[in-house]
């Protein structure tokens, strides 16, 4: 359908539209007009992504003189693929209606591991070794060497790409990673470098958060994006965590050992160069004197991760004299490693601010703050000079230098915590020194400053006023949309007791109680026998899930479940989990139905949808609180309390409930879909916990469903499923329109009635 | 629809054969040799094929398919593997069935088709299973009103579907875990005994390729089959007690406990065809915070899991996933062999991951759409394999009738059962709840008579007041009515489908049918007379509609006859 929002003609690829999608577009347009940032919460299952994409692409079409670029950030690669899938649909529609002028170039961007087509490089196991294998074939000095020595192996794809030079362009279209690989293979061009090259020409770029938020990656990939870009963070309820993760580093004993080995290697290389090519080291020294940390003319294949500190914090001055000479720098690093080794040898937990850490480092190891700050740049320069290609081998020293640079750059918003062992496993000594960032606004600040509009959106952003504070920005639009329901297609329930009336909870003192475990099991046994198709269960942690499944296996509950449905489980092995998910979907497709066990803060909860028949019921076992005794969490809570006056308990509950809401929210995809949500813990019945759930769940949570036992829940589930099986009018009844047609929209535009749906 | 397979073509059994590819479409088979110089190109029209023979899987012969054409020449194709051959065989069978249908349509006047043995058996089986059909068959075919082929030609669907579906549907696997096999012990010694069935062995082999490989390697060269399984369960026991130190010493025991290499390889292969919107491995390759030691380690969001030692990483969760995957896959081979080795080898061969890229992309684009924002799409429907609900009710009725106590009960009708129920409710009201709530006899009575009511109601199509009356008829009369109704339907179906009459064959057929119908007409009259006077009115109401249908047919017959004679004149 094609309609107008104020002066913008919107091309929407479906015949109908939800009223909330329309409203969402209106708000989004206002934010774009105002060139400001916005914060939009809209329940899952109302087609956020397609509404967003179609408005922004249509907006672009309506302003041909100042074309905006869309930078769409997703949390995971599979969400990226999903977004590109929807964009394809939209693009086809727009091209059908508008012809060539609607053509855009949209690319997904990922690492070498996901884009490489060279089979020899791909044979490497993980991302870092793929990166290194690629570098071994594409680094400028390797390629220079190959002109003299024909035995040096190069990558044909990269050579062809380089040969094509500026002619290596992607024709307009929407490219998923798979499409990019196929294109690259077909043309013989390297898809990775091609995609990176196309970033500056693309109208839509889809990639993961890190490419914008993590300075190490953003520094090389997103450097050249223009200000007239709209940045979207989808599923952004965890964005604060991504921000603080991007600036946190930790050092373990193995890191130190590895770093020492790296230094030995570097030392040898330096000696070798001194003997054979002393001029090169001298050239580097001269460059450093002139104040250039890095050569400016690095070719794409030589780039390694960028500076871990944020761009505006990086000093633009000469590298201090005491680390200009390569061997002096190695000495400084040795002293640093030694000092860190001593600090790791502690028996107690130590917490320190960066300032005091730097001063004690200065007094005991004689390393100044400014020196620390330049560690990263100096190392980078040295590695380039020494022509080191196997970068994966040098990760430990890289980590230590990242740590040094960060600790030297930031005085507040961070703390250093040294723990001799993991609190939960005190018998295993595993000392760790962590530099952890508490201030989420640090990492995202450059993004807000650089781009004209940043859109933060998710299904769960409640309480919506908290996010501007956590990220310290002022949105021009901040709205939370309700969901207009054609029928009551979600059925949240709070289960507080088992059939035997014993309370159930994952509270620490209760979770391993055999009664609770049994009641949890019985709930599932009963449910799988009445719920068709897919059932998803979320547990609070891997270790809890492990334990409870083992018990269910011993007591025969698992066998009872398996008589009804197949069981698939998320494990910490991603390959296994992916296959389990794939099988789960196939089991649901073939009508047999299945159960999927997953973890609330795990990878699956993060971005896999259990829509339609893939999930008719979600059981959330327990409240997914963070491990509250964690020192880092404590430090962060303290920081939040001091700077934002956010109470500890409030933040913890907020965090747990957004996690729970995120888990259960995955069952709904559209209004035609339906699903039940069971919160199985007695603590959910308390008002202070429950009220933190997003409004669209709360509005369906009836008072009668707040304190259920297993048998009552079964009864309600039966009734609900029967009701959902009845035919209904999709367009909505009783004057409440939940599905708008073209006509409806035109009528609305005429009369100016905006809130027809509510 | 067509398919292509790589085969070896042989003109006779002794022939060494020519390599090439076989293309099959619905109308013909085309063999093209790999060697372009060879002139062994072969074309066979599908309708020319008379019969096909093939080698049984499991015999030590290679997978051969032998096609004989109507001229009596035979062509032998040797396939690369059994699944290929079976696929081709199924395809040809279907194409043949289609050809048959078409030829039947075009030449109805030559009804004496050659029947294959299999088809005959199928018909016989259908008759045996369905008493109604048998009765009709007896009535019309044996009395020569209809020929055998005429009778079956209206039931082509029944034959076709049955034959295809029966060959396709396979038994699933049990959902029980292999680790759920509990040994039996004799109670006196520490010895335990495991009873292994071929199904369990199949499941173990399917779930644990390493065990399968070990079996192929060790048995019978190194140990006997019994020793092998003893070792296997010993290893399982050691694993369950976490006593793996002992296992590590024994080379053969260690085989069972090692992480499964074959499984890991298969997993890598499967990863290539998973839906990219599910691929979490791609994430791991993308997310730069997973750079070693970057990001937050111990803030309590990430789970702390004890580092396990590498050798015994296999966990219950993995076993569960693996088990569910195997059950989902089902029996991928159709080897019905007691010989364990054959099963193991067949499984090894069958484990080839097919590429389904296209389907994957289609699925993805479909998932991207929002279903209720657009006009409904009509996806192809998959046929459900549900048995006729009538079978259930009939079998229930049979049960009730066959029991001695049921014989008495069957005389009672619903009202009596209702009365009984009412009585017991009254009793409860007077005396309060007792244990058991309802006497078993009462509930049984109510249940069985309800079943009977439902089943009789199902027997007659549609619902109108006359049907309830059927139940009040004596059983013999009722059966007679129903029988007449079905036979009239059968006759009418043949009658109307013969028009317009174009050949003499149809002419004689219609004449025969008309005679049979008038016969039935008089039978109906006779039945009307014979029933008791109080039921006569109702029966005549029932019979009237049948007679009306017959009258219409007679009328058409007469007018048509007149028209034709007039034409000839």
TrEMBL record, chain A:
Full protein name: DNA 5'-3' helicase
Molecular-function annotations in GO: 4 iron, 4 sulfur cluster binding; 5'-3' DNA helicase activity; ATP binding; damaged DNA binding; hydrolase activity, acting on acid anhydrides, in phosphorus-containing anhydrides; metal ion binding
BP-aspect Gene Ontology terms: nucleotide-excision repair; positive regulation of mitotic recombination; response to heat; response to UV; transcription by RNA polymerase II
Keyword tags: 4Fe-4S, ATP-binding, DNA damage, DNA repair, DNA-binding, Helicase, Hydrolase, Iron, Iron-sulfur, Isomerase, Metal-binding, Nucleotide-binding, Nucleus
EC number per UniProt: 5.6.2.3
Classification lineage: Eukaryota, Viridiplantae, Streptophyta, Embryophyta, Tracheophyta
Similarity field: Belongs to the helicase family. RAD3/XPD subfamily.
Subcellular location: Nucleus
């Amino acid at each position: 359908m094609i309609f107008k929002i104020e002066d913008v003609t919107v091309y929407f690829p479906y015949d109908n539209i939800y009223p909330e999608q329309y409203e969402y577009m209106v708000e989004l347009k206002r934010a774009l007009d105002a060139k400001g940032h916005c914060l939009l919460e809209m329940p899952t299952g109302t087609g956020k992504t397609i509404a967003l994409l179609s408005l922004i692409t249509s907006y672009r079409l309506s302003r041909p003189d100042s074309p905006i670029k869309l930078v769409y950030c997703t949390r995971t690669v599979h969400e990226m693929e999903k977004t590109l899938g929807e964009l394809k649909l939209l693009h086809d529609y727009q091209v059908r209606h508008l012809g060539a002028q609607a053509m855009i170039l949209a690319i997904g961007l990922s690492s070498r591991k996901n884009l490489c087509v060279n089979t020899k490089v791909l044979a490497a196991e993980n991302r870092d070794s793929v990166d290194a294998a690629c570098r071994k074939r594409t680094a400028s000095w390797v390629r220079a060497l190959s002109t003299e020595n024909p035995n040096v192996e190069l990558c044909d794809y990269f050579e062809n790409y380089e040969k094509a030079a500026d002619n290596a362009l992607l024709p307009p279209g929407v490219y998923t990673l798979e499409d990019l690989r196929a294109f690259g293979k077909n043309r013989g061009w390297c898809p990775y470098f091609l995609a990176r090259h196309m970033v500056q020409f693309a109208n839509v770029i889809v990639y993961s958060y890190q490419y914008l938020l993590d300075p190490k990656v953003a520094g090389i990939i997103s450097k050249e994006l223009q200000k007239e870009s709209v940045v979207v963070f989808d599923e952004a309820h965890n964005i604060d965590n991504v921000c603080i993760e991007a600036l946190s580093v930790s050092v373990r004993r193995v890191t130190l050992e590895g770093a020492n080995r790296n230094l030995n290697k570097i030392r040898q290389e330096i000696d070798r160069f001194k003997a054979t090519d002393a001029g090169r080291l001298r050239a580097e020294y001269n460059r450093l004197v002139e104040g250039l940390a890095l050569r400016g003319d690095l070719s794409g294949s030589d780039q390694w991760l960028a500076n871990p500190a944020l761009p505006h914090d990086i000093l633009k001055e000469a590298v201090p004299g005491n680390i200009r000479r390569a061997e002096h720098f190695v000495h400084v690093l040795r002293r640093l490693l030694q000092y860190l080794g001593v600090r790791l040898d502690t028996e107690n937990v130590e917490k320190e601010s960066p300032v005091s850490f730097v001063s004690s480092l200065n007094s005991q190891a004689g390393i100044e703050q400014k020196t620390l700050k330049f560690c990263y740049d100096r190392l980078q320069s040295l590695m380039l000079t020494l022509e080191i290609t196997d970068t994966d081998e040098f990760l430990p020293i890289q980590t230590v230098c990242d740590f040094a640079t960060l600790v030297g750059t930031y005085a507040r918003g961070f703390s250093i915590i040294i723990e001799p062992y993991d609190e939960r496993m005190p018998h295993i000594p595993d000392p760790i020194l962590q530099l952890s960032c508490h201030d989420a606004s640090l990492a995202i600040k450059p993004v807000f400053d650089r781009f004209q509009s940043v859109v933060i959106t998710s299904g769960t952003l409640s309480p919506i006023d908290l996010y501007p504070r956590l990220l310290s920005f002022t949105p021009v639009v901040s709205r939370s949309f309700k969901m207009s329901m054609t029928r009551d297609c979600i059925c949240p329930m709070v289960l507080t007791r088992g059939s035997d009336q014993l309370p159930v909870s994952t509270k620490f003192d209760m979770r391993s109680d055999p009664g609770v475990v049994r009641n949890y099991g019985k709930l599932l046994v009963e449910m799988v026998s009445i719920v068709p198709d897919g059932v998803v269960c979320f547990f609070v942690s891997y270790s809890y899930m492990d334990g409870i499944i083992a018990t269910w296996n011993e007591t025969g509950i698992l066998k009872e479940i398996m008589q009804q449905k197949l069981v698939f489980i998320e494990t910490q092995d991603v390959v296994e989990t992916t296959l389990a998910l794939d099988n789960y979907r196939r089991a649901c497709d073939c009508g047999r139905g299945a159960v999927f066990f997953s973890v609330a803060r795990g990878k699956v909860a993060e971005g896999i949808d259990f829509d339609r028949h893939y999930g008719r019921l979600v059981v959330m076992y327990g409240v997914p609180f963070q491990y509250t005794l964690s020192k880092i969490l404590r430090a962060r809570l303290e920081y939040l309390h001091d700077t934002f006056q956010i109470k500890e308990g409030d933040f913890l509950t907020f965090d747990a409930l957004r996690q729970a809401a995120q888990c259960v929210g995955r069952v709904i995809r559209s209004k035609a879909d339906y699903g039940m949500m069971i919160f199985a813990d007695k603590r959910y019945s308390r008002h202070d916990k429950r009220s933190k759930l997003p409004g669209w769940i709360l509005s369906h949570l009836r008072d009668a469903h707040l304190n259920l036992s297993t048998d009552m829940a079964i009864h309600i589930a039966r009734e609900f499923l029967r009701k959902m099986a009845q035919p209904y009018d999709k367009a909505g009844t009783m004057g409440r329109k939940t599905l708008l047609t073209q006509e409806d929209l035109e009528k609305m535009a005429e009369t100016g009635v905006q809130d027809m749906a509510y | 629809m067509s398919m292509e397979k790589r085969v070896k073509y042989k003109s006779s059994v002794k022939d060494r054969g020519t390599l090439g590819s076989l293309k099959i479409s619905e109308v013909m088979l085309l063999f093209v040799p790999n060697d372009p110089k060879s002139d062994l190109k072969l074309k066979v029209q599908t309708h020319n094929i008379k019969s096909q023979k093939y080698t049984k899987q499991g015999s030590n012969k290679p997978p051969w398919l032998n096609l004989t054409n109507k001229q009596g020449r035979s062509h032998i194709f040797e396939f690369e593997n059994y699944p290929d051959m079976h696929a081709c065989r199924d395809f040809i069978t279907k194409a043949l069935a289609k050809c048959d249908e078409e030829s039947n349509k075009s030449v109805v006047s030559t009804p004496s088709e050659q029947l294959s043995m299999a088809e005959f058996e199928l018909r016989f089986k259908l008759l045996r299973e369905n008493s109604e059909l048998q009765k009709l068959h007896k009535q019309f075919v044996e009395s020569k009103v209809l020929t055998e082929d005429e009778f079956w030609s209206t039931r082509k669907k029944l034959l076709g579907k049955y034959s295809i579906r029966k060959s396709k549907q396979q038994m699933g696997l049990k959902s029980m875990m292999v680790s759920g096999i509990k040994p039996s012990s004799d109670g006196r010694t520490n010895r335990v005994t495991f009873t292994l069935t071929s199904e369990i062995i199949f499941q173990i082999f399917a779930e644990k390729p390493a065990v399968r490989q070990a079996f192929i390697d060790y048995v019978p060269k190194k140990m006997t089959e019994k020793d092998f399984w003893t070792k296997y369960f010993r290893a399982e026991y050691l694993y369950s007690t976490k006593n793996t130190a002992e296992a590590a010493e024994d080379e053969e025991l260690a085989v069972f406990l090692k992480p499964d290499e074959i499984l890991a390889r298969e997993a890598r292969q499967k990863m290539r065809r998973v839906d990219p919107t599910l691929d979490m491995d791609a994430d791991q390759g993308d997310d730069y915070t997973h750079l070693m030691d970057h990001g937050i380690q111990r803030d309590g969001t990430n789970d702390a899991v004890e580092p396990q030692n590498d050798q015994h990483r296999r966990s219950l969760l993995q076993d569960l996933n693996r088990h569910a995957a195997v059950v989902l896959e089902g029996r991928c081979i159709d080897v019905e062999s007691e010989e364990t080795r054959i099963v193991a080898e067949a499984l090894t061969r069958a484990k080839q991951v097919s590429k389904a890229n296209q389907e994957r992309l289609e699925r993805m684009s479909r998932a991207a759409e929002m279903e209720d924002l657009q006009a409904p799409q009509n996806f192809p429907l998959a046929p459900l394999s549900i048995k006729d609900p009538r079978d259930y009710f009939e079998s229930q009725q049979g049960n009730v009738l066959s029991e001695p106590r049921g014989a008495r009960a069957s005389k009672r009708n619903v009202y009596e059962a209702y009365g009984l129920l009412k009585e017991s409710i009254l009793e409860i009201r007077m005396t309060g709840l007792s244990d058991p709530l309802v006497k078993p006899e009462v509930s049984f009575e109510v249940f069985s008579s309800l079943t009977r009511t439902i089943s009789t109601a199902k027997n007659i199509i549609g619902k109108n007041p006359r049907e309830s009356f059927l139940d009040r008829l004596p059983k013999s009369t009722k059966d007679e009515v129903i029988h007449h109704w079905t036979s009239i339907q059968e006759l009418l179906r043949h009658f109307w489908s013969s028009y317009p009459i174009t050949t003499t064959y149809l002419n004689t057929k219609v004449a025969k049918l008309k005679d049979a119908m008038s016969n039935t007409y008089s039978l109906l009259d006779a039945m009307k007379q014979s029933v008791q006077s109080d039921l006569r009115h109702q029966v005549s109401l029932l019979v009237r509609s049948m007679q009306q249908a017959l009258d219409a047919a007679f009328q058409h017959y007469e007018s048509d006859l007149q028209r034709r004679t007039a034409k000839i004149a």
